[in-house]
Amino acid sequence: VQLVESGGGLVQPGGSLTLSCAASGFTFSSYVMKWYRQVPGKERELVASISNSGGFTNYADSVKGRFTISRDNAKNVMYLRMNSLKSEDTAVYYCHAPGLSLWGQGTQVTVSS
Predict the structure, then answer these.
(1) CA 48 – CA 98 distance, rounded (Å)
(2) Cβ(101)–Cβ(2) under 8 Å?
(3) pLDDT at 113
(4) Would you call 42 exposed, middle or buried from its count of C-beta atoms within 10 A (0-12, 13-18, 19+)?
């Protein structure tokens, strides 16, 4: 049972990046999934949530209109499309299955010129 994030990296302000979270070992389509992010010295922050079917999504005010959460239940993958990135989006991004108390290892996103 695991979650593995990928897709992080260095991007310039205003740029875009898409994160992926590959799930294995459980029935992915049965679970709500979430993206969190964390900056050193600060609490982990909820970024976005998606229902098990993908029909309902929710976003933090700080990313609303810029980030899009989605999932492909046939491939057991969740995504976070991040547009118009800002320096304050720099963080380690984690995917989370709250129903299983399961976290990925995180992927670093750095927004800098």
Answers:
(1) 13
(2) no
(3) 94
(4) exposed
Measured between alpha carbons, how far is 104 from 56 in angstroms, rounded to an integer? 22
Structure tokens at 96: 């989370």
For residues 55, 109, 111, 14, the Cα torsion angle rounded to the nearest 10 degrees is -30
Q: How far is the CA of 53 from the CAs of 2, 8, 9, 19, 44, in angstroms?
A: 20, 25, 29, 19, 25
Average pLDDT per consecutive 10 residues, the chain (113 residues; last block may be shorter): 98 98 98 97 97 97 98 98 98 98 98 96
CA-based R_g, the chain, Å: 13
Q: Which of 11, 10, 23, 17 is nearest to 80 (CA)?
A: 17
